[in-house]
Structures are given as structure tokens and as C-alpha cells.
Amino acid sequence: MNVLLSHTMFTGSLFHRIAEPARAVTEAGLSIEVTVQHGLKTVMAPDPENPAGPLVVRDVDAQGADVVVLQLPKTWEMLACLRLLQAQGVAVVVEVDDHLTALPPGHQGHDALIRKGVGRIAEACVREADLVTVSTPNLLALYGKGGHGMLVPNAIPRRIAELPPAYEREPELVTIGWTGTVGTHPYDLQEMGSGLPQALDRHRGRSRFAIMGQGGNAREMLRLAEDPVEIPWILDVDGYAAAIGERFDIGVAPLRIDTFNNCKSWLKVLEYSARGVFAVRSPSAEYERLGLGYRARRPRDWATALTRAIEDADWRREQAAANRERVLAHHLTEHTAELWATAWRRAREIRSRADRIGA
Fold this sequence. Notes:
CATH architecture of the largest domain: 3-Layer(aba) Sandwich
Number of strands: 14
Strand order of the largest sheet: 2-1-5-6-7-8
Helix content: 40-55%
Distance between the termini: 22 Å
Radius of gyration: 22 Å
Order of helices and strands: EHEEEEHEHHEHEHEHEHEHEHHEHEHHH
Number of domains: 2
């Protein structure tokens, strides 16, 4: 079977939901030929019903694929591609890893996805696909009802999980780190409340807070005594993952519990754990399901966990090492390769059945 994976330009989603699954399936020897590329080869031409209007998609090249995977399709043109592919007898899978119509106001993507309706276009693509693949059970309940979807959780490549872990260091200055951009997490850091500044204030000179990404107004938001250390975002995901283990000793993963975040993957805590970084995290549905990291519900919990992790290096290392071993045992891409293959095969079966019924 030949599978063509058409990806977006979002580096993280491309890495975890397209490139690494393709690599894992190929290396597992599952008799699937996988091709990865950005976008699809199409023919644009005037619409016969509106010749003076904009060009429309008149043809799309499946390049010999039995299954085409569209990652986060969000335009009418991609919906047209989906329909044209199905008309050729090609199965179409839509891959989606976020609740596209639940972004909160203040999120950088809210205007495009909610106010301009891009999220609704994406959901139209989801409905018409032969199958949808998702990263969480809540997304499966939303987009994959009635056997229309398949859950494939996020995982980590072995080469990343086997890098020298953070807990092997003995730092004089303990770095508490967070990865992300405040603009795409407008309400999340505040979940730590006074817990983070309390821990930092108690251990001034022994600890610091760092943000890998864009910190924005994090100091004012968190009422910190000092500016966070800002580490530039690393686009290369292997380099990003390596840097987490080289720069952080403790990783924080605060999430406001809302509709959007309840559908988000466990990826941040998984990344911390894979790199041997002790994690403190909110009790979101996926973080609870993963079962890694220290649960913090209230500011007092954040203060308690961070204080102990700073003061008790042996405990911090013991917890981090145990979590890393669980990643190695259960959450590598080699563990999810068969799930991806099963999803693509199922889509092929669904399309073949639909074509027989329609013949």
C-alpha cells in the first residue's frame, strides 16, 4: 500500500504527527510505502459556472497513493482536493491534533480560526474524510464518532529519549523551565499563581525561571521579582528536545482547564520526561492519563512541588529517572507505528467499501 502524507508548515505538528510516524512505519517494515511532502500537486482553472471568478481546483495528483493524509486542512481548496481524491478512489485521512473551534479569546489563532471561520472549514474536511486521526480521546469523541476516527497518541523517537538525561547533571543553579509562547498560552502560566514566585523567592541565588520561546509579559503576569531567562525558540525539533534536557532541571506544564486545553495532547510533559527533566503539571485530562509528572492543582501545590524539587536533588532525580524509564517502555514512536498503519489501512477499506456501494 502507498500512503502520501501532505503536511502543514507547523514544525511541531509536522514532526510528531507526520515525519516521525512516517519514519516509524517505514522502519517497522509494515509493507507500506510512505511519501511525505508539503501540500499537493493540483491543477487550477476557471470555474465553468463562474468563468470570471477566482481559479478553482480542477484536478489533484495522488501520485499513485492508495491513501492521502491531509494534515490540518483549513481551506476550501483543500476540501475540493479531498473530494477530487475520493472521486478517483483514493482514501483520504484528515489528521488533526487540536479542537479547532474552541480557541479562547486572546489566543493568537483565535481571529483566523474562530472569527474568520477557518476552523469550521477544517471541520468540514474532517466530516467528509474517510477517516480522521487524532491525538487524544476527547478529540476522538469530538471528530471520530461512530468509527469515523482513530486515536494515535503522541510519542517520542528513541533517539531523543536516549540522549543524556538532565538528571545526570549536578547544577549549582536549578533552572525551572517552560517551553512556549505566551501569545498561544494566554491563560496557562497564571495557573501556577503565587506558587512559582514563592519557590523562586525562597531559593534566590539557587534557582531561576527560564522560558524557551517568547516570554512576552510573563514577569508581570506571574509577579516575578526578576525577568525570566529567555532562550530563543529552536525550530529544529531534535535540537529543541536536546536543549530541554541541557537547559532545564525542572519543567512546568501549567494549563487552564477549558474546552480547548482538555483536548490537547500530553506532549509537553512527555518531552520533559523523555529528557530526564522533572515535571510539575496541571491535572488536565491528558496529563492525568499519561500519569507522569507531579500533579499541581493549586498555587500551594506548585510551591510545594517546586520547593522540594529545588531542595531535594536526589528526590528530583529519582522521579525524573522513573518517568524517563516509563517513556522508554511505553511512549516511543516505535510503539505507535502499528496504530498509524492500522489507521491508514482502515481508511483504505472504508473508501473501497464506499466505492463498491456507489458503483
